Here is the input.
Amino acid sequence: MPKIVDHEARRVRLVEAVWSLTVRGGIEQVSLRKVAEEAGVSMGQIQHYYSSMQALIRDALDRAVRAVNATIEKAVTAADATSPEAVLRACLYALISPAQESTRLMRFALAAAGRAVSDQTMARALAPVDDELLTFTAGLIAAAREERGSEPRCEERTDADICWSLATGLGVDIALGYRTPEAAELLLDHHVEQVLR
Here is the structure.
């Protein structure tokens, strides 16, 4: 009976190797040989799945972004679904999570940002919050204001954009060791209070 190969698991293994190497030594230090050593596979196996080092790094970045989005979705699921404010806070706080995996993904994304200057595919993957998430967040802000009895301001999309920009910036600060997750949460708390007041 032929051996069943889990191709997705192999790709994940290679991507994990790219993440680890990048966090340890920077993206410019990542090579096919080093990825093969880190993943414990042959260079031929990497080339079977990826046509170039650039393709592997793009996939690693795309998967990192998807992993961060999955973290946000899990936080929303775990939040009190009856409270728009709780869901709003859960979404934003997912980016400043003290979890080691969140920090590692943020560090990888930061390292990849340098490449995004000359690579439009990578730049699109690192683009700011998309329209769908802004609309969702603006709706949460409007509902949370209404729940608190605050006056509507008709600037929820702008507030949503600022909230995500702040949360992302704080996530970067944590990844670089400039700020603790606790300090970041205090700052984000303060801002959310201002937005919902």
